Structure formats: C-alpha cells, structure tokens
Amino acid sequence: MPETGAEADSAARLGFLEWVFAMPGAATPQAARDALATEAAQEATSPAARAFVEFLQAACVPVRGARGRARRGRVLH
Predict the structure, then answer these.
(1) Which of 9, 27, 61, 68 is the most exposed place for a label (fewest CB within 10 A)?
(2) Where are the domains of the chain?
(3) Which residues of 28-49 are buried (b: 16+ CB within 10 A; e: fewer)?
(4) Which residue has the higher pLDDT, 65 or 50?
(5) Averaged pLDDT, 14-20
(6) Contact 51, 18 (CB under 8 A)
(7) pTM to 2 decimals?
C-alpha cells in the first residue's frame, strides 16, 4: 500500500479490525501471535503493513484486569 503517515495508520487500523472480525473463531492473543509468524507479517515493508504488524504485536499482550492480573485467552471481539 502506498499510504504513509496518518493514512498508513488508518489503513492498518481498518485492516486490523477486518482481521479481527473475519476470524473464524475468537481473535485471541494466540491468533495474533500466529498471524505474526506468517511470511506476510515477517516481510511487511510498506508503512501500512508495518503499522498492521504493530497492531498484531499489541494484540499479543495479555489484557490486565482491574487488579493488575493478566486475563488469559481474552478475546478481541
């Protein structure tokens, strides 16, 4: 994708949301880790693709509960 700057971030955000809602099952941190292991994610070169990979990396971080404990298997949608 030729977008740069804010346009690349917006395209990546939309792509990430599409990825989340297109998942056949739950979009879990493990699903994000699996997506990061793909060749496409490893070879991301455009600014939008790199921003999408950053969204996947953020999705790998466990969600913290009110008391600071990580919730395992927390779904994104």
Answers:
(1) 68
(2) 5-71
(3) bbebbeebbeeeebeebeebbb
(4) 50
(5) 96
(6) no
(7) 0.77
